[in-house]
Prior knowledge:
The complex is a heterodimer. Chain A is mainly β. In chain A, the strands form seven sheets. Chain A has a 22-stranded antiparallel beta barrel. A five-stranded mixed beta sheet of chain A has the order 1-6-7-4-5. In chain A, strands 2-3 form a two-stranded antiparallel sheet. Residues 7-17 of chain A have low confidence and may be disordered. By secondary structure, chain B is α/β, with parallel strands linked by helices. Chain B folds into two domains: 4-186 and 313-339, Rossmann fold, CATH 3.40.50; 188-309 and 342-370, Rossmann fold (3-Layer(aba) Sandwich). Chain B is 41% helix and 19% strand. Chain B has 16 helices and 13 strands. In chain B, the strands form two sheets. A seven-stranded mixed beta sheet of chain B has the order 7-6-8-9-10-12-13, sandwiched between helices. A six-stranded parallel beta sheet of chain B has the order 2-1-3-4-5-11. In chain B, helix 10 links the parallel strand 6 and strand 7 (233-238). In chain B, helix 6 crosses helix 14 (312-327), helix 9 (190-200) packs across helix 10 and helix 11 packs parallel to helix 12. The radius of gyration of chain B is 22 Å and the shape is elongated. Residues 1-83 of chain B have low confidence and may be disordered. At the A-B interface, helix 1, helix 2 and strand 37 of A face helix 2, helix 6, helix 8, helix 12 and helix 13 of B.
Amino acid sequence: MKKMRRMAGVVAWGWAVAALSQTAMEEEDLALAYGDKSFVSIATGTRQLLRKAPSTSTVITAEDIAAMGASTLSEVLETVPGLHVSRNTLQNSYTPTYGMRGILTDTSPHVLMMMNGVPRTSVYLGNPDEQRVELPVENVARIEIIRGPGSAIYGADAFAGTINVITKTAGDINGTSTGLRAGSFNTWDTWLQHGSKSGEMEISAFIKLGTTDGQRRTVRADFQSGLDAAVGTTASRAPGPVNLGYDSIDGQVDVGYNKLRLRAGYTLRDNLGTGVGIGGALDPAGRVRSERFTGDLSWTDPAFARDFGLTLQAAYMQLANRITTPLRVFPAGASFVAQGGSAFPSGMIGAPDKWERQLRLSAAGVYTGFSDHRLRLGFGHDETEIYKTAERKNFTLLFGAPTALAGGLTPVSGADLFLAPHRRHVDYLYVQDEWSFARDWTLTGGLRYDRYSDFGGTTNPRLALVWEARHDLTAKLMYGTAFRAPSFIEQYATGNPIALGNPALAPEKIQTFEGSFTWQARHDLQTTLSLFRHRISDLIGQSGMTYLNTGRQNGSGGEFELVWDATTAVRLIGHYAYQKNIDQTTKHDAGFAPHHHLYARADWRFAAGWAVSGQLNYVADRNRPFGDTRPQIPDYTSVDFTLRTDQAKHGWDFSASIRNAFDADIREPSKLSSGITFDLPMPRRSFWLQARYSL
Amino acid sequence: MTTPYRRRLFWPLLLAGVVGHSHGAAVPGGGIAGDRPGANAVLGRSAGDAAVSPEDALAERPAFRTAMFVAPANAPLRLAAAGGNPGPIAVFYPDIGEPYRSVFSKIIEGIEERARSRVTSYAVGNNFNTQEVAGELKRQEVRVVIALGRNGLKAASGLDKEFGVVAGGVVSVPEAELKTSAVLSLAPDPALLFARLKSVSPRIQRVFVVYDPRQNGWLVKLARDAARAQGLELVAQEAGDLKVALGIYQNFFAAADPRRDALWLPQDSATVDESTVLPLVLQESWNKGLTVFSSSVAHVKRGVLFALYPNNLELGRNLAASALGVATGSTAPRAILPLRDVHTAFNTRTSSHLGLGLSPSLLQGFDLLFPEQ
């Protein structure tokens, strides 16, 4: 019997080996024509985009996203060299913030995020989203991340870096599919996606519905805990869970016909929990709704005239951020009597709403009529406006300490309103020349002028020298400046005498030197080393009663990246990033951002149709800013695993992930002034299952 | 009608499909192609374009001789007698994981588009039983099978002689399984390669290639004619293994003239490999400013000037056209055909280094550009 079992084992082994070798031979054959597994998706995919300017950049594809087991843009961006995703420390809402090369502030207005080349920036805080809009990735074809300044091409806010999310077109989807994801925190997502072509017409559409309770980790102490201790009240809801639930709808339509392309998008986040509360005090009751419509129409003719390609675009955005259940800025029982204010037996309640719209018109051309030159030029006009604001609240801050309004929760106006409607026009013009002045040497020079209706003009240059030193080595030397436009809150905030807007603000400025070397060390190993040094001036901060251009910050560091196709079935990707940023006013570390960031991922196709990926993320040495004497923010190492079947063109595919598999206690920094002493707790171990069916 | 695709809705089969096994011969495994309503057959381009006659092809591969002629020799005649209705088409494709699976699904999409008659696809996995499937094909009155990939071809070689077979999605054809009336290879047509070479670098007068005659003898024969037609001189040198090939490459680089010479890297496991030949070729060609082009698209990312690679959809359409030709009796000659349904991948970095100064309109016509950033 034992012998038979052994024989059966040998036969089974032999069968498995034969099957594997058959598959291996088949793949070997196909690799000759299409490239190996890591390449074949390129050879069967859509056309590559031409670069706009030399830069230090990372491209993440849909295949990478699937390997990571990521379901949100934040999870994807955390894997980018030199980028760490943290959380909003202005409103403690857990809205993602993007710290690039150590530039990490409370709402992260220093990184320009674009969707298909159109800025997502809301002028209210100057960042992509005030509210916690975790963008889904099912409809993302690729994400291009540029580190370093990009204002010479992209204008405002391409300061620390640029993130461009490119959505799937008909060619990427090619069919109809539907998916369902379930996971920890009672999270459910379902989506439908379609892409098809008929003659010159192509159409793609995506709709996704989701709901989640969000993780519920405990906040041990909040702002109200401190107040309670000071005045002897017991109002705080801490210790208590963070409130991160929401319902979501995401939709995108993309229609292309000949040279025309029309895109429309819809994003809704409803019943948004308040994180740790807008005042740093846990608020389980408050609910927020964020609704965004976008649309853009573009016309592109690469051969508009001899040696001249032209693109015209009009883009529109409408954003409404409304409070659907008034926010408990401080909970029931909070009292400011000791500070000369009022007691709030029902809580200090507020509900600020704002409505924003933007129109962006642009023209861009590429002229190649001069030998060895590639000339890019463009101009445009943007109109951005917060056209309506409203606020109900039961308190006023105009007398110093919070004081109850006689009528309870009432609409307010004038000086009591958080912000009056404002409008901004921008006209801009840019030119860039890519000059191949000698064999293997290219010098790119660019200049952009922006004229803002509120703060005036700003000019930003960009220079890049690229040397194709050897067949396997490219060296780049780059210099550029960039600016960040002040947000409307920084310019025009009212209602709070200790945080008043300042219409005289100038933009923040950065000057960056970069060097980068890309070396194909072996046929299966590519490495990149990037080094940077930047100087930031006119940093906007709250000083006394209002916002002022006071700060200066210097930073330096670098990133080392590695991609190794270890075998035909195993790919290893990793990077290490280091940064050091010093606040020049205090000569102290700028704080918040990690000095060391290490990331590694292994993708292993262990059997036909199956792949497993593991990723490790080490975030270390995050200092407190000047004046914050709390112990350093704890380092963490998170490990995620994803097991998946291949994404099928037809039929089912599945994915299962464990995120933070070893249950690390991950925390993102809070500000000392928030009173959230023990920082913002991030999710513990979580489990995710996904099934997708394609017609 | 229950299509193979719909059958997968049943969970047991669904799970089986996911783990990549076919459940017996009667169950088409992959479901990457569905049924299509019947319509008139459409014939594609002449299969005689740039074809090597079987005699020519096999003269250099003696072991192929028997296999090539024995099996299907009388099949087209018998099929012709069946009349002009081509009937349904069966496709055998390898039950292979992504990302290569997408290659075959795209080819099958092209087959379905062109066939306009019912197309049933069978994933050839470990449990594939050719005899059982043959019985099913007979019941469905299938007369022609399109065999994709090595495994598809191997499975089709076990079919009775009454089935016509058209093969595609293979680079080289294993001799034991060569039982086809026409093989549309994945090796790009030298005529197209040379035409592209002339369009991007008109100064080139001579093309060198190192090849294993067992793998690429048939293609080099075509290449000689193609070179002549473009006014190029083809210097083709044989090598049976990498060691010999390396020596030839070294001699080539020692003597080559960058103003008029170019090197072609064929799909050839004996003369081109990733870890020894390609690094040498890339380094030497860069240093000497020599033009190198390839039949493998991945080489372009590494630094080769350009490559042609399969347009899978169009390849599928042409396979369907050939299959319809076989099914209706107006068959294509038995031959190995090079790939003519191609895209172009191009390396702009290498192009700059070579000082080619190509117009943007020419670049616009390419399907893949490297480097990406």
